[in-house]
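New to this. Please check this fold:
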Amino acid sequence: MVMDRELIAQPRIPDNGCPLLCCGKNPGAINVKDITEDGGKFIQHADGRIVEYFVYGSEEPAAPVILQINGSMGTGYFPANLSLVNDKLKELNIRGLSITIPGYGYTSMFHEGYQLADWAKMDIDPVLAAEGMESSPLLVEGSSYGAGLALAVQSYYGDRVTHLHLHVPYIPYELRKEIKIPDKIGT
């Protein structure tokens, strides 16, 4: 994993030939200067993938960590830059961590064959290690599309997750199947 060394080549993202980014055009290489200018940090995997993340709230190394996961079209920048959230986390002595999910903002897409359920192992573990948070208790908060990822994170980390909060949970069908949530509950 690359953090302070020179960047290696990023993987080429396939496209569908459309000239519009929103419809499938290759977004090109990520400029990590954009991440640091926004107040974020990044790691780079040995395969070239970039992972953008933000640390905020308490600066106490032993503080518990809240992982805040955005919904669709959001990035880690959003929760990290809400002054009300940042101030409250400092008051409560909780470190905030928001990692932009693959394919959004300045985080590279996953390679073919990986699933979002792999996100904790692939991206969260290395970020926690880079920040010295690998043994911190975790509080996990997922909003909208991020709620499904929050459930996958809780499943991966088990009892290390002390609190789980889902806002307007949207859980994709593929993830519901993978973690065995029934299509209909109750009836």
